[in-house]
Amino acid sequence: xxxxxxxxxxxxxxxxxxxxxxxxxxxxxxxxxxxxxxxxxxxxxxxxxxxxxxxxxxxxxxxxxxxxxxxxxxxxxxxxxxxxxxxxxxxxxxxxxxxxxxxxxxxxxxxxxxxxxxxxxxxxxxxxxxxxxxxxxxxxxxxxxxxxxxxxxxxxxxxxxxxxxxxxxxxxxxxxxxxxxxxxxxxxxxxxxxxxxxxxxxxxxxxxxxxxxxxxxxxxxxxxxxxxxxxxxxxxxxxxxxxxxxxxxxxxxxxxxxxxxxxxxxxxxxxxxxxxxxxxxxxxxxxxxxxxxxxxxxxxxxxxxxxxxxxxxxxxxxxxxxxxxxxxxxxxxxxxxxxxxxxxxxxxxxxxxxxxxxxxxxxxxxxxxxxxxxxxxxxxxxxxxxxxxxxxxxxxxxxxxxxxxxxxxxxxxxxxxxxxxxxxxxxxxxxxxxxxxxxxxxxxxxxxxxxxxxxxxxxxxxxxxxxxxxxxxxxxxxxx
Amino acid sequence: xxxxxxxxxxxxxxxxxxxxxxxxxxxxxxxxxxxxxxxxxxxxxxxxxxxxxxxxxxxxxxxxxxxxxxxxxxxxxxxxxxxx
Amino acid sequence: xxxxxxxxxxxxxxxxxxxxxxxxxxxxxxxxxxxxxxxxxxxxxxxxxxxxxxxxxxxxxxxxxxxxxxxxxxxxxxxxxxxxxxxxxxxxxxxxxxxxxxxxxxxxxxxxxxxxxxxxxxxxxxxxxxxxxxxxxxxxxxxxxxxxxxxxxxxxxxxxxxxxxxxxxxxxxxxxxxxxxxxxxxxxxxxxxxxxxxxxxxxxxxxxxxxxxxxxxxxxxxxxxxxxxxxxxxxxxxxxxxxxxxxxxxxxxxxxxxxxxxxxxxxxxxxxxxxxxxxxxxxxxxxxxxxxxxxxxxxxxxxxxxxxxxxxxxxxxxxxxxxxxxxxxxxxxxxxxxxxxxxxxxxxxxxxxxxxxxxxxxxxxxxxxxxxxxxxxxxxxxx
Lengths: 480, 84, 383
Known about the structure:
With 480 residues, chain A is of the alpha/beta class. Chain A has three domains: 199 residues, FAD/NAD(P)-binding domain; 145 residues, FAD/NAD(P)-binding domain (3-Layer(bba) Sandwich), CATH 3.50.50; 72 residues, no CATH class. Chain A is built from 15 helices and 23 strands. Chain A is globular, with a radius of gyration of 22 Å. The relative contact order of chain A is 0.15. Chain B has 84 residues and is mainly beta. Chain B has a single domain, classed as Roll (Ubiquitin-like (UB roll)), CATH 3.10.20.440. In chain B, 8% of the residues lie in helices and 36% in strands. Chain B contains one helix and seven strands, in the order ββαβββββ. The model of chain B has no long low-confidence stretch (mean pLDDT 92). Chain C is α/β, with parallel strands linked by helices and 383 residues long. In chain C, the strands form three sheets. In chain C, strands 1, 2, 8, 9, 10, 11, 17 and 18 form an eight-stranded mixed beta sheet that branches. In chain C, strands 5-6-4-13-14-15-12-16 form an eight-stranded mixed beta sheet. In chain C, α1 packs parallel to α5, α1 runs parallel beside α9 and α2 crosses α9. Chains in contact: A-B, A-C, B-C. The interface between B and C is small, with 4 and 5 residues. β22 of chain A pairs antiparallel with β16 of chain C.
């Protein structure tokens, strides 16, 4: 028997947690499905009670999070929310009801129901670090900035002693500050763009004055820890044989081209790359939602003023609709849930103020994206043997051969010819960079279609064959 | 803050209850725990949040587990057969 | 707007079209290949790369397969590494006595045709495939079965064709045919008009649409198939292994979901699990029912795969004809129009034989095989 809910919320980060709480408060039966052991997603990652005190360290909006967790707990205890932690939606089957085929998030996690059903969906799958290949990026000791952050906030673990944090965007700041606060030495924060780009976006940046306070906070931390912040600087090569030993840094001009003669080597044992984020879209693509290319070049799902996607009864909130941070994600989660409740109950939705705040934060996010583009000349630091696909160990040379010798003009064909994106991660790490590379090699533009072709994954998570064999087990949905 | 004991490649190591396996290994100075199929290159943690599948490790006899997602448990055996 | 004229216009840059282009260009024809999408963007990008004799019914189908095998092994021998040609051999097993009895009849016909088939008993099965379900007690080994990587095949055949003077135009959709009286003299495409001495319809599952534009009908219909791809593993399955029931599935015209297990390893370490056949039109919706059947079938052959992870699945539309034979040769209803399509689930294996034969016919040479059984106008409605 399959339990059927009025709404399934996928993801318990800022967007999903907020959506679940509001949907339950509105009287709907909710199933909340999340891969993590605790709510909070990536943003509100916290150490469990076992790992020590001072949960507040490094966390913004902590009071809001605590309140949401309390509210969730109350709804769970009252039976309004069925909370499935450590569970992944491996397969999302469209139809009425929607069927979510679940699997435990890890092999040791407890069993979860094979299938849950829901009439409506609010998908808040979040995002993960975008990556660009750099020579030596496959050495142990190179991590995504988000991964370093997860270690610091999740268990106060220092993944190295001397770090270079490189890429672009405001996320480099808290990672550097957190690393220093935990006792590590930050050799440099390399920001590919220039703070002056913000000035040009000032009118949009002003939409979110809180962010200005936040930035000042980081500058203070940087000064205290003597963290060198280097604008218009990129990391062009990671040095080392079997692990990170250092890095080559270079200055770039306003177009992102390396300025000759400015390269220098630094010693480091940790390199953290942050090039912004990209949403996890496979569940949204599985139901056929329309996507678009956002200002940061990430593929995102298109939503209307009620957070509705192009698919009836499917709403989305958070990074999936466009990378914009946790505050925006919470507001979108609230709007998605309240608009669904309004539909379900027939009561009018009063959300003008909410929508206004969402618009402001989206404007700010666009300003941030405009100020932190991936440098147009990023591919300049690639060598023929730089790995494009880490899983299948496919070098740049193979991609160049595919577009040159073998006549491929689109990322999907390149994937089929070179195996880029055909390993365990199914292109999550490499596909967008490969699409950019292919666009550059073929003098084409980066399009939503090109990105979508390599973002669809029927299996949103790997499934054991014995579990696949049960995918057609009969299931009669029964109301929860 | 309680500690647990885990075994990795024949080595006993302490970990903090609640840490991920990957965090525990990292804290113990272990930066790579598998090698790639084609180039036999060392790999360990990369994305840290379960997206990249670089950190795969056999945990308690279960192959291909994402070490960054699995919480340590007292007595956990990390790696093939726990000792080799 | 006119494209430069050619001798042979090939519609479709999949495996069959690429093979036609290569052999026609090698024979000295000026060839232009047009495809409405990217190269191999149709069924060829969703294949396993089978080159089988073991599943072919005796008759024209088997003759074509044997001829094609010769082409792989002789004309194209020097390029084998480019497309990862692997003479891995195929192992047909039967889970049931009845299944094996049916297979035995086909095996006898294969032997009569001179195909190498080795009976394999339980001990032999363990030697060939140590992880095979111990409950399976008998099988037949076909050393002549082989595998290639289909995308590399298409890409390299087209590259070799280009080196022989061919042109390849992608994103060029055929929108009509140019006729002079009743003779086909070229095609209209979204990138311009292409005058051609001959037009080859190698549009695979969409060959019927292309033929319609030329005013003729070829009854090519889609037969959907899913494939599961596992995580990369150390060598677990050494040959192509399939259940004897597979043969009857191929030959069936049943509309409903048919599934019979085919399992093989790949150089990349992944294991491919096929095969389902359904007549659902061009429906691309994922089918949990189909893949669940695939999984159960694979587990029946290799129980050890139970905890192996499936990373992805893909689907494709096999182009099939009612009599399960492809369509190869000149179309008497439209002089100047030729067909090379309708290869169902054997397109990769039969592609090079088809291309070779078609090039012979285009050059007005005697063809190594009689093409009459593959005639475009053989279907009832044309009689």
